[in-house]
Protein backbone atom coordinates (compact mmCIF):
# COMPACT_ATOMS: atom_id res chain seq x y z
CA UNK A 1 0.00 0.00 0.00
CA UNK A 2 3.02 2.30 0.14
CA UNK A 3 3.91 4.90 2.79
CA UNK A 4 0.32 6.00 3.21
CA UNK A 5 -0.61 2.60 4.66
CA UNK A 6 0.22 3.59 8.23
CA UNK A 7 -2.16 6.54 8.42
CA UNK A 8 -4.93 5.85 5.93
CA UNK A 9 -6.68 3.11 4.04
CA UNK A 10 -7.12 3.50 0.32
CA UNK A 11 -9.54 1.21 -1.45
CA UNK A 12 -10.80 1.67 -4.96
CA UNK A 13 -13.45 -0.15 -6.93
CA UNK A 14 -13.57 -0.29 -10.71
CA UNK A 15 -16.56 1.18 -12.49
CA UNK A 16 -17.10 -0.72 -15.74
CA UNK A 17 -20.24 1.11 -16.81
CA UNK A 18 -19.55 4.58 -18.18
CA UNK A 19 -23.07 5.65 -17.22
CA UNK A 20 -22.08 5.31 -13.57
CA UNK A 21 -19.06 7.63 -13.75
CA UNK A 22 -20.76 10.71 -12.37
CA UNK A 23 -22.55 8.69 -9.70
CA UNK A 24 -19.26 7.01 -8.79
CA UNK A 25 -17.43 10.30 -8.20
CA UNK A 26 -20.35 11.62 -6.18
CA UNK A 27 -20.45 8.46 -4.06
CA UNK A 28 -16.72 8.72 -3.34
CA UNK A 29 -17.16 12.28 -2.09
CA UNK A 30 -20.20 11.27 -0.03
CA UNK A 31 -18.27 8.48 1.68
CA UNK A 32 -15.49 10.87 2.60
CA UNK A 33 -18.07 13.24 4.07
CA UNK A 34 -19.64 10.32 5.98
CA UNK A 35 -16.22 9.56 7.45
CA UNK A 36 -15.75 13.18 8.46
CA UNK A 37 -12.94 13.89 6.00
CA UNK A 38 -12.81 16.91 3.64
CA UNK A 39 -12.69 15.36 0.18
CA UNK A 40 -10.45 17.96 -1.43
CA UNK A 41 -7.82 17.78 1.31
CA UNK A 42 -7.80 13.99 1.38
CA UNK A 43 -7.59 13.53 -2.36
CA UNK A 44 -4.88 16.21 -2.60
CA UNK A 45 -2.92 14.41 0.11
CA UNK A 46 -3.30 11.11 -1.73
CA UNK A 47 -1.87 12.68 -4.86
CA UNK A 48 1.09 14.00 -2.89
CA UNK A 49 1.77 10.46 -1.65
CA UNK A 50 2.00 9.21 -5.23
CA UNK A 51 -1.60 8.27 -6.00
CA UNK A 52 -3.33 9.61 -9.08
CA UNK A 53 -7.02 10.27 -8.66
CA UNK A 54 -9.28 9.22 -11.54
CA UNK A 55 -12.86 9.66 -10.22
CA UNK A 56 -14.25 8.46 -13.55
CA UNK A 57 -12.46 5.11 -13.20
CA UNK A 58 -12.87 4.32 -9.53
CA UNK A 59 -14.09 5.83 -6.32
CA UNK A 60 -12.46 5.93 -2.94
CA UNK A 61 -14.63 3.81 -0.69
CA UNK A 62 -12.67 4.59 2.47
CA UNK A 63 -9.75 6.75 3.48
CA UNK A 64 -9.83 6.17 7.19
CA UNK A 65 -7.30 7.67 9.61
CA UNK A 66 -6.82 6.16 13.03
CA UNK A 67 -7.21 9.15 15.34
CA UNK A 68 -6.38 8.71 19.00
CA UNK A 69 -6.64 11.34 21.73
CA UNK A 70 -3.85 9.72 23.73
CA UNK A 71 -0.45 8.22 23.13
CA UNK A 72 -0.72 4.42 23.40
CA UNK A 73 1.44 3.13 26.27
CA UNK A 74 4.34 0.94 25.20
CA UNK A 75 5.07 -2.45 26.72
CA UNK A 76 7.82 -0.85 28.79
CA UNK A 77 5.43 1.80 30.13
CA UNK A 78 2.87 -0.87 30.97
CA UNK A 79 5.47 -2.79 32.97
CA UNK A 80 6.51 0.39 34.75
CA UNK A 81 2.89 1.20 35.65
CA UNK A 82 2.34 -2.38 36.80
CA UNK A 83 5.19 -2.01 39.31
CA UNK A 84 4.22 1.52 40.34
CA UNK A 85 0.59 0.59 41.11
CA UNK A 86 1.32 -2.82 42.63
CA UNK A 87 -0.87 -1.93 45.62
CA UNK A 88 -3.93 -1.39 43.39
CA UNK A 89 -5.24 -4.66 41.98
CA UNK A 90 -7.75 -2.94 39.67
CA UNK A 91 -5.02 -0.95 37.94
CA UNK A 92 -2.94 -4.09 37.52
CA UNK A 93 -5.91 -5.94 36.00
CA UNK A 94 -6.43 -2.98 33.68
CA UNK A 95 -2.83 -3.23 32.46
CA UNK A 96 -3.08 -7.00 32.00
CA UNK A 97 -6.27 -6.60 29.98
CA UNK A 98 -4.60 -4.08 27.65
CA UNK A 99 -1.74 -6.48 27.01
CA UNK A 100 -4.20 -9.37 26.58
CA UNK A 101 -6.12 -7.48 23.88
CA UNK A 102 -2.91 -6.67 22.05
CA UNK A 103 -2.25 -10.39 21.91
CA UNK A 104 -5.78 -10.89 20.55
CA UNK A 105 -4.95 -8.45 17.75
CA UNK A 106 -2.10 -10.72 16.67
CA UNK A 107 -4.43 -13.74 16.69
CA UNK A 108 -7.03 -11.90 14.61
CA UNK A 109 -4.37 -10.91 12.07
CA UNK A 110 -3.29 -14.56 11.74
CA UNK A 111 -6.90 -15.59 11.04
CA UNK A 112 -7.33 -12.67 8.65
CA UNK A 113 -4.42 -13.90 6.55
CA UNK A 114 -6.03 -17.34 6.22
CA UNK A 115 -9.42 -15.84 5.31
CA UNK A 116 -7.78 -13.51 2.77
CA UNK A 117 -5.94 -16.38 1.08
CA UNK A 118 -9.06 -18.54 0.89
CA UNK A 119 -11.15 -15.67 -0.47
CA UNK A 120 -8.61 -14.86 -3.18
CA UNK A 121 -8.37 -18.52 -4.22
CA UNK A 122 -12.17 -18.89 -4.27
CA UNK A 123 -13.09 -15.69 -6.13
CA UNK A 124 -9.96 -14.40 -7.83
CA UNK A 125 -10.77 -10.92 -6.50
CA UNK A 126 -10.11 -8.77 -3.45
CA UNK A 127 -12.95 -7.91 -1.10
CA UNK A 128 -13.05 -4.34 0.19
CA UNK A 129 -14.17 -5.47 3.66
CA UNK A 130 -11.12 -7.76 3.92
CA UNK A 131 -8.82 -4.98 2.71
CA UNK A 132 -10.37 -2.71 5.28
CA UNK A 133 -9.82 -5.31 8.01
CA UNK A 134 -6.19 -5.73 6.93
CA UNK A 135 -5.61 -1.99 7.10
CA UNK A 136 -7.32 -1.63 10.49
CA UNK A 137 -5.22 -4.46 11.93
CA UNK A 138 -2.02 -2.97 10.52
CA UNK A 139 -2.89 0.40 12.05
CA UNK A 140 -3.68 -1.19 15.40
CA UNK A 141 -0.48 -3.22 15.44
CA UNK A 142 1.54 -0.15 14.46
CA UNK A 143 0.00 2.23 17.01
CA UNK A 144 0.35 -0.21 19.90
CA UNK A 145 3.80 -1.45 18.91
CA UNK A 146 2.55 -5.05 18.88
CA UNK A 147 5.43 -7.23 17.73
CA UNK A 148 6.45 -10.85 18.03
CA UNK A 149 8.92 -9.77 20.74
CA UNK A 150 6.04 -8.80 23.03
CA UNK A 151 4.66 -12.38 22.87
CA UNK A 152 7.26 -13.86 25.21
CA UNK A 153 5.63 -13.72 28.65
CA UNK A 154 2.29 -15.47 29.35
CA UNK A 155 -0.11 -13.41 31.43
CA UNK A 156 -1.16 -14.55 34.91
CA UNK A 157 -4.84 -15.43 35.46
CA UNK A 158 -6.90 -12.34 36.22
CA UNK A 159 -10.45 -10.97 36.09
CA UNK A 160 -10.97 -8.38 33.34
CA UNK A 161 -11.98 -4.94 34.67
CA UNK A 162 -15.60 -4.01 34.09
CA UNK A 163 -16.85 -0.70 32.78
CA UNK A 164 -17.76 0.20 36.36
CA UNK A 165 -14.14 -0.40 37.34
CA UNK A 166 -13.03 1.96 34.59
CA UNK A 167 -15.44 4.66 35.72
CA UNK A 168 -14.27 4.29 39.31
CA UNK A 169 -10.61 4.58 38.25
CA UNK A 170 -11.34 7.66 36.18
CA UNK A 171 -13.05 9.32 39.14
CA UNK A 172 -10.51 8.28 41.79
CA UNK A 173 -7.44 9.14 39.67
CA UNK A 174 -8.88 12.21 37.98
CA UNK A 175 -5.53 14.03 38.21
CA UNK A 176 -3.36 11.07 37.23
CA UNK A 177 -2.57 11.26 33.52
CA UNK A 178 -1.13 7.74 33.48
CA UNK A 179 -4.35 6.14 34.73
CA UNK A 180 -6.47 8.23 32.39
CA UNK A 181 -4.32 7.04 29.47
CA UNK A 182 -4.64 3.40 30.52
CA UNK A 183 -8.42 3.67 30.77
CA UNK A 184 -8.62 5.35 27.35
CA UNK A 185 -6.38 2.66 25.85
CA UNK A 186 -8.56 -0.17 27.15
CA UNK A 187 -11.72 1.48 25.85
CA UNK A 188 -10.05 1.91 22.48
CA UNK A 189 -9.00 -1.76 22.40
CA UNK A 190 -12.49 -2.97 23.27
CA UNK A 191 -13.99 -0.65 20.68
CA UNK A 192 -11.62 -2.10 18.11
CA UNK A 193 -12.99 -5.59 18.83
CA UNK A 194 -16.46 -4.31 17.90
CA UNK A 195 -15.11 -2.81 14.68
CA UNK A 196 -13.61 -6.18 13.75
CA UNK A 197 -16.93 -7.87 14.53
CA UNK A 198 -18.77 -5.50 12.17
CA UNK A 199 -16.33 -6.33 9.36
CA UNK A 200 -16.52 -10.06 10.13
CA UNK A 201 -20.28 -10.02 9.56
CA UNK A 202 -19.82 -8.38 6.15
CA UNK A 203 -17.08 -10.85 5.18
CA UNK A 204 -19.19 -13.81 6.33
CA UNK A 205 -22.16 -12.64 4.28
CA UNK A 206 -20.00 -12.25 1.18
CA UNK A 207 -18.35 -15.64 1.72
CA UNK A 208 -21.72 -17.42 1.97
CA UNK A 209 -22.89 -15.66 -1.19
CA UNK A 210 -19.87 -17.05 -3.06
CA UNK A 211 -19.68 -20.59 -1.66
CA UNK A 212 -21.89 -23.34 -0.28
CA UNK A 213 -19.61 -24.18 2.66
CA UNK A 214 -18.41 -22.53 5.85
CA UNK A 215 -14.81 -21.48 6.41
CA UNK A 216 -13.20 -22.71 9.62
CA UNK A 217 -11.07 -19.56 9.96
CA UNK A 218 -14.22 -17.42 9.91
CA UNK A 219 -15.81 -19.65 12.55
CA UNK A 220 -12.69 -19.37 14.72
CA UNK A 221 -12.74 -15.60 14.32
CA UNK A 222 -16.40 -15.51 15.37
CA UNK A 223 -15.67 -17.66 18.41
CA UNK A 224 -12.66 -15.53 19.38
CA UNK A 225 -14.64 -12.31 19.16
CA UNK A 226 -17.52 -13.79 21.16
CA UNK A 227 -15.09 -14.65 23.97
CA UNK A 228 -13.69 -11.11 23.99
CA UNK A 229 -17.15 -9.52 23.99
CA UNK A 230 -18.15 -11.73 26.91
CA UNK A 231 -14.95 -10.77 28.78
CA UNK A 232 -15.75 -7.10 28.33
CA UNK A 233 -19.39 -7.55 29.34
CA UNK A 234 -20.66 -6.41 25.94
CA UNK A 235 -24.30 -7.35 25.38
CA UNK A 236 -24.87 -7.20 21.65
CA UNK A 237 -28.65 -6.95 21.83
CA UNK A 238 -28.37 -3.88 24.07
CA UNK A 239 -26.21 -1.96 21.60
CA UNK A 240 -27.92 0.10 18.87
CA UNK A 241 -27.58 -1.21 15.32
CA UNK A 242 -24.82 0.59 13.46
CA UNK A 243 -25.11 1.57 9.83
CA UNK A 244 -22.83 -0.41 7.54
CA UNK A 245 -20.36 1.75 5.66
CA UNK A 246 -20.98 1.71 1.90
CA UNK A 247 -18.63 -0.11 -0.41
CA UNK A 248 -17.52 -2.91 1.91
CA UNK A 249 -19.00 -5.65 -0.28
CA UNK A 250 -17.39 -4.37 -3.48
CA UNK A 251 -14.61 -6.25 -5.25
CA UNK A 252 -11.20 -5.21 -6.55
CA UNK A 253 -9.04 -6.99 -9.10
CA UNK A 254 -6.25 -8.99 -7.46
CA UNK A 255 -3.55 -7.10 -9.36
CA UNK A 256 -4.96 -3.67 -8.46
CA UNK A 257 -2.75 -1.72 -6.04
CA UNK A 258 -4.35 1.72 -6.15
CA UNK A 259 -1.69 3.14 -8.45
CA UNK A 260 -2.24 4.37 -12.02
CA UNK A 261 -1.74 1.80 -14.74
CA UNK A 262 1.67 1.73 -16.39
CA UNK A 263 1.62 2.27 -20.16
CA UNK A 264 2.31 -0.82 -22.23
CA UNK A 265 5.09 -0.39 -24.78
CA UNK A 266 4.87 -2.34 -27.98
- Helix- and strand-based class? mainly alpha
Profile the largest sheet.
2 strands, antiparallel
- Order of secondary-structure elements: EHHEHHEHHHHE
- The DSSP helix count reads 8
What is the strand content?
A: 5-15%
Overall geometry comes to: elongated
Q: Tally of extended strands?
A: 4
Termini Cα gap? 28 Å
The main sheet orders its strands as 1-2
Query: How helix-rich are the residues, as a percent range?
Result: 40-55%
Mean pLDDT: 73
Based on CA atoms alone, the radius of gyration comes out at 21 Å
Number of domains: 2
Characterize this entry briefly.
By secondary structure, the protein is mainly alpha-helical. The protein has helices spanning 21-34, 39-48, 75-84, 89-123, 128-144, 163-172, 177-210, 216-231, and strands at residues 11-14, 58-62, 125-127, 251-253. The strands form 2 sheets. It has a two-stranded antiparallel sheet. It has a two-stranded antiparallel ribbon with strand order 3-4.
Description:
The chain is mainly alpha-helical and 266 residues long. The protein has 2 domains: 60 residues, no CATH class; 179 residues, no CATH class. Helix content is 55%, strand content 6%. It has a two-stranded antiparallel sheet. It has a two-stranded antiparallel sheet with strand order 3-4. Helix 3 packs antiparallel against helix 4, helix 4 packs parallel to helix 7 and helix 4 runs antiparallel to helix 8. The longest helix has 35 residues. The chain is elongated and about 55 Å long. The chain starts with 10 loop residues before the first strand and ends in a 13-residue tail after the last strand.
Amino acid sequence: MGPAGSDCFLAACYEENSDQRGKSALLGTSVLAFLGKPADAVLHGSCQRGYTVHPYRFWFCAIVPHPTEHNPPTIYQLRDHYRRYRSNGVVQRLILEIQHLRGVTREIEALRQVIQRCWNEETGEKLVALERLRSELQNEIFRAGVTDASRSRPLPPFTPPTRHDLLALEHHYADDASIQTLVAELRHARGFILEVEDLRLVILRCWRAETDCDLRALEELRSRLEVEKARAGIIVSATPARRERPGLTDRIALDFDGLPEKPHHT
